[in-house]
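Entry
Fold in token form

___
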Amino acid sequence: MWIKKSSKELLSDLRARLIGAVLFLAVAIILVGMLGFSHAGLHFPIWVRILGLMLAGILLLAWHLRSQWHRERAGVLVCEKCGRVKVNESQNVCLCGTRMSPMCEMKWIETPPLTGRVPSEPHGLRTVNI
């Protein structure tokens, strides 16, 4: 079932995204610097430069895929009441009449199925009279 994230969870998500962006930029700057320092007199072996170039390509691909995923996720709306999901629609009111929220503000929680049976003994242990 979908429930709204608390403000603490939203801040935690934002903080995680900012830390990821800073780490990505730091690694990118180091890689670009490592590849560019050969012109400044600091020579790295060719295998280190090739490895750095491959790592930069992998980071660029990961950044592109993650940004594409965030763009697609930004267009998804979830109903707070009935849990319906809409994709890329301008209307943010559900059929049940409730306002729909962006998926990034909601979280999914699994609820155990209700069977209607409640165990009478704790942990399924039975008492035996001797």
The chain has a mean pLDDT of 76. Helices lie at 7-36, 46-74. Residues 7-36 form the longest helix (30 residues).
